User: Which sequence fits this backbone?
């Protein structure tokens, strides 16, 4: 049986018949931090829903990551879902940022539900709106913000996702996620530390005031 609160929050509006189907077909799995869940080029057999934890969704270009969005508790991966209407091939990577619990629903079952329970489309429209906003924020960061602002936003986002301040993250990890070099990130972190925005200690990087993820 899946966590009852998760069911009610995510799928309660679809009614008892749907919940019976969900409990029949859904697969619940624990995923360790840094584990790859979806790989670019693979055939998608399941649509993942995140019960708890966080997942990074990104693509790779010449070994550098371009982050599209993060999945948080109760989110689903829209780009995985969208692939089931075309060739079922993933165009993204999805990696657990921390120990997570994931619900997997077979693609074949999703196809049946779209006919049997048409109201499920409300769920995916809602996910589309959230993911579109995430991607637009990513584009705005890349186009309109200087690297120091992007680095600071990224650190705030990681603190928001994990609830940890300070957060343990390396300069190389930040560089990979923002598509730049470790040396550049190290210089930027020193600059924003001198400006009083962060502190770098042996425990990790700390935001002096625990703020929301974005300060646009």
Assistant:
């Amino acid at each position: 049986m899946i966590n009852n609160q998760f069911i009610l929050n995510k799928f309660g509006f679809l009614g008892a018949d749907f919940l019976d189907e969900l409990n029949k077909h859904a697969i619940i799995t624990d995923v360790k931090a840094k584990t790859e869940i979806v790989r670019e080029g693979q055939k998608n057999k399941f649509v993942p829903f995140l019960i708890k934890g966080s997942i990074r969704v990104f693509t790779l270009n010449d070994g550098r990551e371009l982050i599209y969005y993060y999945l948080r508790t109760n989110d689903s991966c829209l780009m995985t879902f969208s692939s089931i209407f075309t060739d079922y091939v993933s165009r993204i990577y999805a990696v657990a940022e921390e120990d997570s619990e994931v619900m997997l629903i077979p693609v074949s079952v999703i196809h049946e539900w779209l006919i049997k329970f048409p109201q499920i489309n409300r769920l995916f429209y809602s996910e589309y709106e959230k993911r579109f906003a995430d991607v637009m924020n990513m584009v705005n960061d890349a186009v309109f913000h200087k690297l120091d602002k992007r680095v600071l936003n990224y650190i705030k986002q990681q603190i928001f996702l994990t609830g940890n301040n300070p957060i343990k993250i390396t300069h190389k990890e930040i560089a990979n996620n923002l598509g730049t070099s470790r040396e550049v990130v190290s210089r930027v972190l020193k600059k924003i530390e001198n400006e009083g925005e962060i502190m770098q200690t042996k425990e990790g990087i700390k935001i002096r005031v625990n703020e929301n993820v974005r300060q646009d």
Notes: Residues 173 and 182 are 8 Å apart (CA to CA). Strands lie at 27-31, 36-38, 46-52, 55-61, 64-71, 93-96, 100-106, 198-201, 204-207. The mean pLDDT is 84. Helices lie at 4-11, 16-25, 78-83, 107-116, 120-144, 147-162, 171-178, 182-194.
